[in-house]
Amino acid sequence: MSDIAFLSMMLGTAVAAGVLGAILGLGGGILLVPLLTLFFGVSLPYAMGASIVSVIATSCGAAAGHLSSGLANLRLGLFLATATVSGALLGAGLVGVVPARALQILFGLALGYSAFTTLRQLHVEVAESLTVDPVAQRFGLDGVYHDRALGRDVAYHAVHVGRGTAVMFGAGVLSGLLGIGSGAFKVLAMDTFMRLPMKVSTATSNFMIGLTAAASAGVYFGRGDIHPVIATPVALGVLLGSYVGTRLIGRLRNTTVRKLFLPIVLYLAVSMLLRGLGLLR
Amino acid sequence: MKGAERAVPAVLLIGGFIAVGLMLVGLVALEVRATRTAHPLDVRHVVENRAAGRAVDVFVSLPQIAHALARWPPEPVAIIAAGIVVLLTTPAAGLLAALVAFARAGDRRYVIICAALLVMLVSGFFLHVGG
């Protein structure tokens, strides 16, 4: 296979990852790393470096579109990002101190529970918020967006902000400790704990993952894990794909996005449990 | 739409496209040089290289990149590396835009939040890449 053909295939794969990442609030690592290593024969360090590029490129493309459309909540994203970014920095500092396998089992079980909760809410379009959270009010975390699929404006209120922030911090620690993205955790924290509409959760996650990834990007760059020849088609493809994804999400209902998200959560739960048990590398 | 909600997406999109533009220019220049010198790029060799433990031409610090760009013609891999640096720092640029917008709006809470995030991102990045 020629260089041009190889790079073109990588570009096409990255476009698809960008589209899915923008809709589901994920950075692409979960999608790209297996494809790059298994299908393209990329060594794992380079695949991880490409993953960090993918996360930030997805965030740039998707967050730009989601913020412009009003689907992503900037204040909410910034507020919760203080937890994820500080968690990521702490997690990176705890490498070698905290047993990673025990954490993987713990989070695998937590993800399994979240998958069960997501399944129970599969047909909930917009959750009813019966309580008013004082923190949400003080920091202006509530919002409204125009839902094209429903043909109306949807007002939403963030609840259990403390609980959601704690989960975000844990997701950040996991990111820093295990070197993984945490888009799925962010989406689950906002959807399950804070009762935000699913599309708002994925859109806001798209904004946050860029900040979390940027906190640890220097490590990958300094180690030489971001190879220019791999990073270029990945960044271009993901940036284009994520911008397309932001156009598509407007036509989808919250229930559809949740149905697309469920297999991702299940896959993550199983792979994390298997890694924790030492059955998967 | 408020100031920050306008400024941040603009910065993220512009930063993303500048980054990718630089990376594309560098990659094309690399391919052209490879063709002219009859040394094919051999992407497969590149992607497997790290696992084999062989040295690779990857820039890992800002002074390295600046030095390679100062030459004429500039090193194509350094152009790509400059694009990668722009991409990795674009979220921080978005934060800066948000901070300025919130400061203009007199929103002290979010100025503090943005400032705290910026300090964490910038110190984390330059700790490993500053050279």
Secondary-structure-derived class of chain B: mainly alpha
- Count the E strands of chain B: 0
Mean pLDDT value of chain A? 84
Taking the sheet with the most strands of chain A, its summary is: 2 strands, antiparallel
* Range of helix content of chain A: over 70%
Give the N-terminus to C-terminus distance of chain B in angstroms.
41 Å
Helix proportion of chain B: over 70%
Q: What is the tally of beta strands of chain A? A: 2
Sheet/helix structural class of chain A? mainly alpha
Number of domains of chain A: 1
Shape of chain A: globular
Strand share of the residues of chain A?
under 5%
Low-confidence stretches of chain A: none
How does the SSE layout of this entry go?
The complex is a heterodimer of chains A (281) and B (131).
Chain A: H1 3-24, H2 29-38, H3 44-69, H4 74-93, H5 100-120, H6 134-138, E1 143-147, E2 152-156, H7 161-178, H8 183-193, H9 198-223, H10 228-249, H11 254-276
Antiparallel strand pairs in A: 1-2
Helix pairs in contact in A: 1-2, 1-3, 1-9, 1-10, 2-3, 3-9, 3-10, 4-7, 4-9, 5-11, 7-8, 8-9
Chain B: H1 3-36, H2 43-52, H3 62-70, H4 76-104, H5 108-129
Helix pairs in contact in B: 1-4, 3-4, 4-5
